[in-house]
Amino acid sequence: MDRLGDKFEGINHDHPFLPESFTLLYHTDFYGRLTAEQQLYYNQLCGAMTNELSMFLEQELINKVLIRLLHHPKIVAIEDFRVCLLNMIGDEKEHGGMFEKLNQLCFPELYQHSSFHFIRFGFRERLGFRLCLQFPAQLTFVIWLLLIIEEYSMTLSTAVLKDHGNGRLGPVDGLIRAIHEKHLQDEVGHVFIDIHLLRTFFETSAPWAKKVNLALLKAVFREMTTPKRANRQVIRQLVRVFPELKPMEEDMIRAMIGLKDDQVFQRDFFSRETLPRTFQLFDEYFEATDLIDTFPAIDQARPHASNPGKIVLADNY
Ligand SMILES: [Fe+2]
Ligand SMILES: [Fe+2]
Predict the structure, then answer these.
(1) Looking at residue 101, which CATH number applies to its domain?
(2) pLDDT tens column, 37-86
(3) 98 C-alpha vs ligand 1 centroid, how far in Å?
(4) Does the model's pTM come out above 0.85?
(5) How many domains does the chain have?
């Protein structure tokens, strides 16, 4: 955040906060029925919600897994790698502060009392989370989740940086671009750390343990890719500000939830293009081929006949 400290001056509310294709409603017929002003506000709310999600996943999932693994003998044995994990934990803390500050700047009225406005987890979800994170060296599906989350966040940041405002809403705000640039720099290294963690813990586990973990990953991933409360809350907030949308509120929510079964949408979001390293690892681990059914982009996900070769760990992770 320090490197961006002097840039945290203001945000331009005339610009979108995300490329439009990264917002759910954009993929439904309802998006075209919104005015430009409504589309812009919806886009900005989605940006804030995405920041919340990043904060939550990086603090509550990624960092908790890493902190657990720091004491594992396989990590303790390689001091350089342990230092990498420590640096990554520091990076994620910094990102959390960055996204929190950004959201307060974007919507001070929504984040007056809490860092989370759209994202909330119930007791059952929190308990499940806590249990899974207790044993990441055995429940290695959480390490797969780390890779998927971080690779997807790289895809998002890359899209923000490549967005030159060809859409109806114009280019993404400059401060947000700078934040994604910083985030992308760090996440590239994190993805290689995730791959190394998979090599260390998943690759060396027993065949039955791999099967169990891939089954768990499949279940959790399907759950994660189903639009839920946070996305509904974004639409509710949109309607609160534009009450003329009230008559189509429930239809908009239904259309958005329906995206979970929309093959084209799912293929755009979870594919070899958006998660290249994850898919390469699916190919590499024969046991993971079952998992591709989780991704509707099955045609892209079929393992190649030839061995794709191992992803090599970067020297400077
Ligand atoms: Fe991050
Ligand atoms: Fe990260």
Answers:
(1) 1.10.620.20
(2) 999 999 999 999 999 999 998 988 899 999 999 999 999 999 999 999 99
(3) 10
(4) yes
(5) 1
